[in-house]
Design goal:
This protein is 31% helix and 27% strand. The protein has 243 residues and is α/β, with parallel strands linked by helices. A 6-stranded mixed sheet has the order 6-7-8-3-9-10. Strand 4 and strand 5 form a beta hairpin. The longest helix has 14 residues. The structure holds adenosine-5'-diphosphate and magnesium ion (MG). The site of adenosine-5'-diphosphate (ADP) has 11 residues, from strand 2 and helix 1.
Length: 243
Amino acid sequence: SHDNPMTPADQAPLLQITDLEVAFRSSTGLVPAVRGANLTLYPGQSVAIVGESGSGKSTLLHLISGIDVPDSGSVVYGSDRGDVEVSALSARERTGIRRRHLGFVFQRDMLLPDLTAGENVALSCLLDGMTKKEALKVAMDRLTSVGLSAYSGQRPGELSGGEAQRVAIARATATDPQIIFADEPTASLDSLTAEAVVEELLQATTEQGRTLIMVTHDPAVASRCNHVAEIHDARIQGRPSQR
Ligand code: ADP
Ligand code: MG
């Protein structure tokens, strides 16, 4: 786009997914959950992954983020220290990458109910190694940037669905990750609130040079991303197209 002087041709890919496959063992045999996913993403790009329930969307996010490892295929992160093949790393190393470089937003706010909004955001900073003082300062900054500075002392049960998702966005971005994964982040919201939350999510990610990988059922939400990848029957159909 004209806003971004760096075109993909000038940049190294941030993420390269090649022929990714995984199957789960069930009582009736092997159930393929992802069959042959391919995707290349550059810094600041966004992709919406759409498809019916059970088509493998969450599984794909787990593979890309190193929560699960594939049966075959590869997930390669480009870093300033060279390419990293995620499935070649130990579980401990993958957890380290998730804490430092990745952020997550889920459908139902997976906020800890007994912590305040500020403490929920600060917790991911503490896990990333910040001091308590730094963590609380970053948490306040992040809550302010999503318009919730007045809510830092509220507990999740005292927030609306949209507010809770904005806290989740603040938390996901507090450690300054390169990639944000969002699994149906607007699924439990009405359409007007969904629109506002997606706007907030894009502001906190692609507009800051971060990459966004979002699962969604909502075509209006998907259309806000640079690419739309459709999954049918565990397969990504066609190639994602540049907006
Ligand atoms: P979606 O997010 O698109 O609704 P999922 O990725 O959650 O789909 O699931 C894809 C398929 O893999 C489904 O058939 C689901 O039952 C199966 N599946 C997902 N996770 C597991 C697991 N941990 N063990 C066994 N089967 C699983
Ligand atoms: Mg899912």
